[in-house]
Amino acid sequence: MCSDCECRPLGWLLGLPFAFLSLLISIIGVVVWIVGLMLSCICPCCFCVTIVVELAIELIKAPIHVMQWFTSKIPC
Fold it and tell me: Which of 3, 42, 47, 49 is the most buried (most CB within 10 A)?
C-alpha cells in the first residue's frame, strides 16, 4: 500500500456514489453560475448576485470536497 497514507482506495470507493450525486448538484451550480454571471453583467451593483455566484462556485467544487472528506475518514 502507500507509505504515507495518502492513497485510501476504500474511502474512494465508498465516496463514489456520493460524489456522483454531488456531481449532479455541481451541474446545477454551473447553470446558476452562468445565470449569475449574466445578471452581474446587467447590474453589477447587485450584491446578492455576487453571493449567488459564489454559492454556485462552491456547488461546482462539491464532488472534490466529498471525495476528500470520504478519503480522510477511512484509516490507512
Answer: 49
Residues 24-74: tens digit of each pLDDT: 888 888 888 888 888 878 877 777 777 878 888 888 888 888 778 877 777
With beta carbons less than 8 A apart as the criterion, state whether 12 and 64 touch: no
Which of 52, 54, 61 minimizes the C-alpha distance to 23? 61
The candidate with the shortest Cα–Cα distance to 66, out of 7, 6, 25, 32, is: 25
Q: What's the pLDDT at 1?
A: 46
Q: How far apart are CA 8 and CA 29, in angstroms?
A: 28
Nearest to 26 by CA among 55, 61, 53, 65: 61
Residue 4: per-residue pLDDT: 54
